[in-house]
Automatic annotation (TrEMBL), chain A:
Catalytic activities: ATP + protein L-histidine = ADP + protein N-phospho-L-histidine
GO terms for biological process, alphabetical: osmosensory signaling via phosphorelay pathway
Sections of the chain in a coiled coil: 206-244
Organism per entry: Prosthecomicrobium pneumaticum
Protein name (Swiss-Prot/TrEMBL): histidine kinase
TrEMBL record, chain B:
GO biological process, one term: phosphorelay signal transduction system
Keywords: Phosphoprotein
Domain Response regulatory: 8-135
Taxonomic source organism: Prosthecomicrobium pneumaticum
Matching Pfam families: Response_reg
Superkingdom per UniProt: Bacteria
Classification of source organism: Bacteria, Pseudomonadati, Pseudomonadota, Alphaproteobacteria, Hyphomicrobiales
Annotated InterPro entries: CheY-like_superfamily, Sig_transdc_resp-reg_receiver, TCS_response_regulator
PROSITE patterns hit by this protein: RESPONSE_REGULATORY
Transmembrane regions: none
Protein name (record): CheY-like chemotaxis protein
């Protein structure tokens, strides 16, 4: 079968073709019926012409025989018959003339017939008039002359010609009508057959498409099933990797802390020893400090500050890994109230920074209260922290719902984040822009970890010097990463 | 500390530095009791429960166990469980000393019968202070009656 039939539009095309066939059948039928009507009218006309010419001839014959009877018997009854017939001759001729007026062959013949008929009528009237005037011999003389007989013969010949002409026309018309009817039958039969074929073809095609559709659906189901399996596999791998990282972070931070305890402890011991030794040394001259002691103290200061810094970093990793291990407690939370509560707690900070926070209506989300609090307090804190100098801060929190997700935007008019730093800011211990604010570079890393664990993502749009917009995308109903499930089953085991 | 049946301090701590710092601070707090140190769990258990793990060796002895949770051969929690489930040792106070400040871990140790849980802070002052607090602890130890 050709290509277009195999497309889903195939049946539609077939139905269209069927419709065209039907319309064509209708049009042809109407044309043919009208042709046959015309033929019928023509037949009627022919019959009328024949009838009329016969009537004309009969009337003439009646007038003539009435006249002859009158001449022979002078009986007024014959005269009456004659008189009745002779008056009808001319109207009948006129009627015939009208009937053939549209016929190019018959009209001239009727025209030629006219004078003969008129002459004949005149001859008949003349004879009757002579006889009534008592001039019977003159009348008989007229009758005896061949004039009347000749006229009648001419009339009969012409009438015969007209009749045979009409006869021929009738045969032709009958043949034509029969042809038209045959054609009509043929067209109807052909149309019916065409429609039946098209219908059968349509049914066949629809059946085939149905089969193909079912097959395609089955294939799709199969593919979906496989996809789900794949996704599950990947998720399991991912959660395993994630668990691995969590454990790694936990162990590393612990194992790093142990030596640090020693370093700090023995540094303090060293300090104690130094103090003992300094006491034992001869006191330096007034107002002076032993340079070696001074250098010793400097070294100790650096060691201690480095330990504190390292301790801070280790604690940060530990907290992060702990946040990654905490079990969530999902519940329906009114985000608006929650965020407003957070801004309330920042009142002092806002006043100092000359900033304000606008919270637009926010929807309810089923998620973990603590995590949400940490996410938004970090984002708001950052927004207030990194304002543009001299520009009053305006931070707007808004939300839109999209399908099963809620997009919460935290928009500020602060200093913004340069393109190159937009991924970096989410990394642990990384910060962007001028380092003029205290911080460890943990907040956004923590936020991203939390958002991901809640089953969402976070996006950042920003323009340096204009402001930043963080968009937190969360599932409306609780739908955490698969990690949770595997972990809780592990715990249960 | 003039105790007729002096308390022996059993310290199971794999980090030599930590052990030394703990000892220094205990001494600094004025505690003069004997300290027996083990760098791993097996050695500690051998001493506490005896090679047959019955605990009979220490029946009637006054012991205080200083326990680190991260040991090379076993976890301190295992040792804690064994000590607290042994009829001869269950009354010996156990002080868990570790870098872990995980709440779940702490909770678990207390549930298993740990008497004091001390997090080793990096801040040495706090560390020294916490150890010295143990000095006070010694004065309230109930030495079990010799049977």
């Amino acid at each position: 079968m050709s290509g277009w039939l195999n497309r889903p539009s195939g049946p539609v095309v077939l139905v269209g073709l069927g419709l065209v066939a039907l319309v064509m059948m209708g049009v042809i039928s109407v044309l043919l019926v009208r042709a046959s009507e015309r033929a019928g009218t023509a037949v009627t006309e022919t019959l009328e012409v024949q009838n009329q010419i016969l009537t004309l001839q009969l009337t003439l014959r009646r007038a003539e025989s009435g006249q002859r009877g009158y001449l022979l018997t002078s009986d007024p009854d014959y005269l009456d018959t004659y008189a009745a017939a002779i008056d009808l001759v001319m109207p009948r001729l006129e009627r015939l003339r009208i009937l053939v007026s549209g016929n190019a062959v018959q009209a001239p013949l009727v025209e030629r017939l006219g004078p003969f008929v008129e002459d004949k009528v005149r001859e008949l009237r003349e004879v009757v008039a002579l006889h009534q005037a008592g001039r019977t011999d003159d009348a008989l003389a007229v009758v005896r002359s061949d004039l009347g007989q000749n006229l009648m013969t001419s009339i009969s010949e012409l009438a015969g010609q007209i009749r045979s002409n009409e006869e021929a026309g009738l045969v032709r018309q009958n043949q034509q009508a029969a042809g038209t009817n045959r054609l009509l039958l043929f067209v109807n039969l052909a149309g019916a057959v065409a429609i039946a074929v098209l219908a059968a073809l349509s049914i066949l095609l629809i059946r085939r498409f149905e089969k193909q559709t079912l097959e395609a659906q089955a294939a799709l189901r199969e593919a979906n099933l496989q996809l789900e399996e794949k996704v599950e596999e990947r998720t399991a791998d991912l959660s395993e990797a994630n668990d691995e990282i969590q454990r790694f972070a936990y162990i590393v931070s612990h194992d790093l802390r142990s030596p640090l305890v020693n370093i700090m402890g023995f540094t303090s011991e060293l300090e104690a020893i130094r103090n003992d030794m300094a006491d034992r040394l001869p006191p330096p001259p007034q107002g002076e400090i032993d340079p070696s002691i001074e250098e010793f103290d400097e070294a100790l200061r650096f060691i201690k500050s480095s330990i504190r810094k390292m301790d801070g970093l280790i604690n940060a990793i530990l907290n992060l890994s702990r946040a990654g291990r905490r079990e969530f407690d999902p519940q329906w939370l009114p985000l608006g109230e929650l965020v407003t509560g957070l801004t309330g707690a920042m009142a002092h900070q806002l006043l100092e920074a000359d900033a304000r926070i606008e919270v637009e209506p926010l929807p309810q989300v089923e998620t973990d209260r603590l995590a949400i609090g940490q996410i938004f307090s970090n984002l708001l804190d950052n927004a207030v922290k990194y304002l543009r100098p001299g520009v009053p801060g305006l931070i707007r929190v808004s939300a839109v719902e999209k399908g099963r997700f809620v997009l919460i935007r935290v928009e500020d008019n602060g200093r913004g984040i340069e393109e190159k730093d937009r991924e970096r800011v989410f990394e642990l211990f990384r910060r962007a822009g001028p380092q003029d604010r205290p911080g460890e570079g943990i907040g956004l890393a923590h936020v991203r970890t939390l958002v991901r664990r809640l089953g969402g993502t976070i996006r950042l749009e920003s323009e340096a010097g204009k402001g930043s917009t963080f968009t937190v995308i969360l599932p409306k109903a609780w739908r955490p990463r698969e990690v949770e499930r595997t972990r809780s089953t592990e715990r249960a085991a | 500390m003039h105790n007729p049946n002096p308390v022996t301090i059993v310290m199971i701590e794999d980090d030599e530095g930590h052990a030394r710092l703990i000892e220094k601070n205990i001494r600094r707090a004025g505690v003069t009791n004997e300290i027996v140190a083990f760098p791993n769990g097996t050695g500690g258990l051998d001493y506490l429960l005896g090679p047959d793990r019955s605990g009979l060796v220490n029946r009637g002895r006054a012991l205080l166990v200083l326990l680190d949770l991260n040991l090379p051969d076993m976890t301190g929690v295992d040792i804690l469980k064994l000590v607290k489930s042994n009829e001869h040792l269950k009354n010996a106070p156990v002080v868990v000393l570790t870098t872990t400040d995980d709440k779940v871990e702490i909770q678990r140790c207390y549930e298993l019968g740990c008497n004091v849980y001390i997090t080793k802070p990096v801040n040495y002052e706090s560390f020294a202070h916490a150890i010295r607090q143990l000095g006070l602890f010694f004065s309230v130890i109930q030495v079990p009656e010799a049977v």
